[in-house]
Write a structure and sequence with these properties.
442 residues, alpha+beta, six-stranded antiparallel β-barrel, DUF4043 domain-containing protein
């Protein structure tokens, strides 16, 4: 639409492009979890969910062909194939708006108009960053929980703090709901049980960030000793740990076991790097991104191993002058205030996370900004996949302008179940391999 439909007092502002510049500056200045996502276009007219397929590889051949069997049309060879795994990416719409009355705010019209755009930009950037964070932790905190209520007597069902990571198991490359047919092996207090059903509580009482409390039902009875409150429960299918790797100081089995002296160390961070390296996880421009809040960073900088690394060079090192690390020992330290912080009794638990490339996938709906999605009587700017919509006054007095933003898309954490020890000898059995979550006191 032409700018002549706007009040004359506002036309010079729109002509100069000030509004778009304000919005874009806020999007670009935000550092956070969205940076690690691989951006993909979510096509039109395919529904709200798309299934992504990731092919696996074939195991290397180290046995020579026997000369005596090298006959006939098959030369003694038996056909083999590669495997696949699938994950889903779902999209939804997010957005917000601000109204501006051009009459009641006439004295400060320019400042408020631009301030609205700036505020919308900050909100949009933070919203997407938090959606990315939630998707990342939702995957990488799964399969690790604890018994919530002690069993009164031996029985097949236990209450746990979080059922994420226990609800689905891979069957022929597809994540399928756990059932009596599609079972999952689970360790309860270190003892193996066969999981056959998962139920979510009607009222969520989970203490985990984004957690979902519920019950786990097994094919046999759980002993009272194993079903005692605070005991560790871990997904452990096919004789190997499929739960994401969570690093806790001093070998703590679950979050509730962390005590005030369990601090973040450089050694544990290097253990996280080693885990990603042995799973063949690619880096992000040569480094793994390590997201941590200021308290976690303070512990990291105070660790003796870190101090020794810069011993004798503290006056010149930018890491000490600036109070933060940019790049160090295969890690790119990124301070964030969006990290999960949890008060658990007398202990505050913090959760830094170390991420490799494509730990997240972001789907941006390709119809954002199209005239059949947004009204035609608006000025629409698309900045970093987010639509900024400035609508002309439509009220009877032609006074109220609407300044809005919206984004249609979603985030998902893809799996790497096909990467096993046959393909990468040092690989873990975890479904999710591209990030390592740390839990420590602080």
């Amino acid at each position: 639409m032409g700018i002549q439909n706007f009040p004359a007092a506002l036309q010079p502002i729109i002509q100069q492009g000030f509004l778009e510049r304000e919005f874009q500056d806020q999007i670009e200045s935000e550092l956070g979890f969205r940076q690690i996502a691989r951006r993909e276009v979510f096509p039109n007219k395919i529904g709200e969910t798309v299934t992504k397929t990731r092919p696996g590889l074939k195991a290397p051949v180290t046995t020579p062909i026997t000369p005596s069997s090298n006959t006939n049309l098959d030369n003694g060879l038996s056909p083999s194939t590669w495997t696949v795994e699938q994950y889903q990416l779902a999209i939804a719409m997010y957005g917000d708006t601000i109204d501006l009355n051009t009459v009641t705010n006439r004295v400060g019209i320019v400042e408020q108009f631009l301030q609205n755009a700036k505020t919308n930009g900050i909100q949009a950037a933070q919203s997407l960053d938090r959606l990315a964070r939630n998707a990342l932790f939702n995957a990488y905190l799964g399969g690790n929980t604890r018994v919530r209520v002690t069993l009164g007597a031996t029985g097949p069902t236990i209450s746990v703090d979080d059922v994420r990571g226990f609800q689905q198991v891979f069957v022929n490359g597809q994540l399928t709901a756990v059932s009596g047919t599609n079972t999952m092996a689970v360790l309860v207090n270190g003892d193996p049980y066969t999981l056959t059903a998962v139920a979510v509580d009607g009222s969520n009482v989970s203490t985990a960030p984004g957690g979902v409390s519920g019950t786990l039902t097994f094919s046999g009875n759980v002993t009272v000793a194993d079903g005692t409150a605070l005991n560790t429960v871990t997904a452990y299918n096919a004789g190997a740990g499929v739960a994401p790797f969570i690093l806790r100081p001093n070998g703590r089995g679950n979050t509730s076991a962390i005590v005030g002296t369990d601090l973040l160390t450089m050694g544990s961070a290097l253990d996280g790097v080693a885990y990603l390296r042995r799973n063949g996880v690619p880096t992000i421009n040569g480094m793994y991104n390590f997201y941590l809040d200021p308290v976690s960073a303070r512990q990291f900088f105070a660790d003796p191993d870190f101090k020794q690394l810069f011993q004798g060079a503290t006056a010149a090192a930018k890491e000490f002058r600036m109070g933060r690390v940019v790049e160090l020992v295969d890690m790119r330290i990124i301070p964030t205030t969006e990290a999960y912080v949890q008060n658990l009794g007398s202990v505050t638990v913090r959760r830094p996370i170390l991420c490799g490339a494509e730990a997240l996938v972001e789907g941006d709906f390709e119809g954002i900004g199209a005239t059949d999605v947004a009204p035609a009587d608006s000025i629409i700017d698309i900045v970093d996949g987010i639509a900024q919509v400035t609508r002309e006054p439509l009220d009877r007095l032609q006074q109220i302008i609407a300044q809005s933003w919206y984004w249609i898309g979603g985030f998902t954490a893809p799996t790497d179940q096909t990467v096993n020890t046959n393909i990468v000898p040092t690989a873990s059995a975890s479904y999710y391999k591209r990030a390592v979550c740390f839990e420590h006191a602080g």
